[in-house]
């Protein structure tokens, strides 16, 4: 008993002493830098008032970055050549000075669908769509191909923005296109939805993870109160449990609790049908894309390379892909000798369009809408987080510098521009044509930490609608994606209505 009382008294004394030592400058720093977090806890007098002056949601912070880009009259970049030119020493600009946006879906939607002379003659507005439709017409099946093609499906991540990709996959499933692919590459949330796509648990279980489970999980999944510890200011978090963890040198809970998703959800709450998945992925392999820090290259983990043979091992590969630096737990260590050599990568590393090295055709599903800038200024919170996570925690100062210099955003910008060009002129960036599906500019972007059920459900439906309109083979059905999406997810919408009532 006495042993318990002593630490408690030290904690209380330290707690009170810390409160007295906080100066107004410290309060201003907390208020300005962390006001977006909105942590529900007790702070020194005056802090909450300062927060009220600067409090923003994470969505508003991203909107402010975009507004700042416009205010500073960022240079709009529309091609790879222009990007390399303005970032060269002669160009004299930095990535934060540029405005790079996707416009692939707009280019594809403006393409006309030529009339099909017969049901077996699919439209050919894009070679990737033509190859997919040809396989449907010829009833081609995995393991019995005769066309000599290898069609890849590349799935972007983005945290909770993965709900958009889930909706797109639901459209592919609805149109009967699942068996037209030869390999599925998934990064972050894309790897999770890729698994449910192969197991046949789309459109119900897969998308439902977002709007039925994660939206209700609260702090069991996303706890934004932990953000201060993620940037090295844990001492300014005055909750009792935080000080106890600091005194005992215990690792704090991450902002994003991947244990809940990769253990509770896929094993119990919305279990992945492992037997079905395993059988299907032997014909259509799932490759989980991660960023290897030692080689500084994106690599793909697969069952063929021995990276996973069980659900737990697959979940560990997904954890490595989903690891957002500083907010999702420690690094995942995997032997690089067991890694694949694919050039596909995740959003923080490389966009899916790189997969052309192995495939003859690639369909890329992006979760960020067209018209949204993928460059811009890095926030102070991001800089602090990267430096703490890579330099202090993992002794990787080179990676910290690479991230704070926004080199990951440069690679992503290059890939977005490449995909834009492929939408206008398929095959122009290399021997492999790439077709990209992204939300239209008039559709809202889903924030990667979004938790509102109605917003996530709308993201699923929007993803479905766009993919349906671009890939439905019948001319008369083009443009009806929104209507079909509402019908497919009618039950989920009714549940949402009952909850609001």
Automatic annotation (TrEMBL):
Motif GXSXG mapped to chain: 186-190
Looking at the record, the residues that make up the PNPLA domain are 153-366
Q: Which key words are in the record?
A: Lipid metabolism
Keyword Methyltransferase (UniProt): no
Write down the PROSITE patterns for this protein, in alphabetical order: PNPLA (PS51635)
Bilayer-crossing residues are none
Return the SUPFAM superfamilies for the record: FabD/lysophospholipase-like
Pfam families, A to Z? Patatin
Q: Where is this motif: GXGXXG?
A: 157-162
The protein's matches in InterPro entries, at most eight in alphabetical order, are given as:
Acyl_Trfase/lysoPLipase (IPR016035), PNPLA_dom (IPR002641)
According to its UniProt entry, the protein's GO biological process terms are: lipid metabolic process
Q: What is this protein called?
A: PNPLA domain-containing protein
């Amino acid at each position: 008993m006495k042993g318990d009382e002593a630490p408690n008294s030290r904690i209380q004394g330290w707690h009170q002493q810390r409160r007295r030592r906080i100066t107004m400058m410290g309060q201003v720093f907390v208020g300005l830098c962390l006001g977006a977090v909105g942590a529900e806890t007790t702070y020194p007098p005056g802090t909450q008032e300062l927060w009220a002056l600067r409090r923003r949601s994470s969505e508003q912070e991203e909107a402010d970055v975009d507004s700042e880009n416009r205010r500073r009259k960022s240079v709009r970049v529309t091609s790879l050549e222009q990007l390399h030119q303005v970032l060269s020493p002669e160009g004299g600009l930095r990535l934060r000075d540029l405005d790079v946006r996707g416009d692939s879906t707009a280019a594809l939607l403006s393409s006309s669908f030529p009339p099909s002379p017969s049901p077996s003659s699919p439209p050919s507005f894009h070679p990737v769509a033509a190859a997919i439709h040809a396989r449907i017409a010829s009833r081609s099946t995995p393991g019995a191909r005769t066309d000599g093609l290898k069609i890849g499906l590349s799935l972007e991540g983005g945290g909770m923005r993965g709900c958009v990709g889930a909706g797109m996959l639901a459209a592919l499933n609805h149109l009967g296109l699942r068996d037209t692919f030869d390999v599925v590459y998934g990064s972050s949330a894309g790897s999770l939805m890729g698994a449910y796509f192969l197991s046949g648990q789309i459109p119900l279980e897969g998308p439902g993870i977002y709007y039925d489970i994660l939206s209700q999980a609260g702090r069991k999944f996303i706890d934004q109160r932990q953000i201060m510890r993620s940037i090295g200011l844990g001492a300014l978090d005055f909750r009792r449990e935080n000080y106890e963890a600091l005194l005992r040198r215990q690792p704090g809970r991450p902002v994003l609790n991947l244990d809940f998703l990769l253990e509770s959800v896929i094993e119990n709450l919305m279990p992945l049908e492992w037997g079905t998945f395993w059988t299907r992925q032997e014909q259509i392999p799932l490759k989980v894309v991660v960023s290897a820090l030692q080689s500084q290259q994106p690599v793909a983990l697969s069952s063929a390379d021995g990276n996973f043979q069980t659900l737990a091992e697959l979940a560990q590969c997904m954890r490595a892909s989903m690891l957002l630096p500083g907010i999702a737990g420690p690094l995942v260590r995997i032997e690089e000798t067991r890694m694949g050599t694919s050039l596909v990568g995740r959003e923080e590393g490389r966009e899916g369009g790189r997969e052309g090295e192995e495939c003859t055709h690639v369909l890329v599903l992006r979760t960020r809408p067209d018209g949204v800038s993928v460059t811009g200024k890095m926030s102070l919170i991001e800089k602090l987080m990267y430096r703490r996570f890579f330099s202090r925690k993992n002794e990787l100062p080179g990676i910290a510098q690479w991230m704070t210099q926004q080199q990951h955003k440069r690679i992503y910008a290059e890939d977005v521009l490449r995909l834009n060009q492929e939408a206008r002129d398929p095959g122009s960036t290399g021997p492999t044509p790439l077709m990209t599906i992204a939300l239209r500019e008039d559709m809202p972007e889903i924030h990667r930490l979004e938790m509102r059920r109605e917003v996530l459900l709308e993201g699923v439906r929007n993803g479905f609608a766009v993919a349906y309109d671009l890939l439905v083979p019948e001319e008369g059905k083009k443009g009806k994606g929104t209507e079909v999406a509402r019908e497919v997810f009618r039950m989920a919408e009714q549940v949402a209505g009952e909850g609001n009532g």
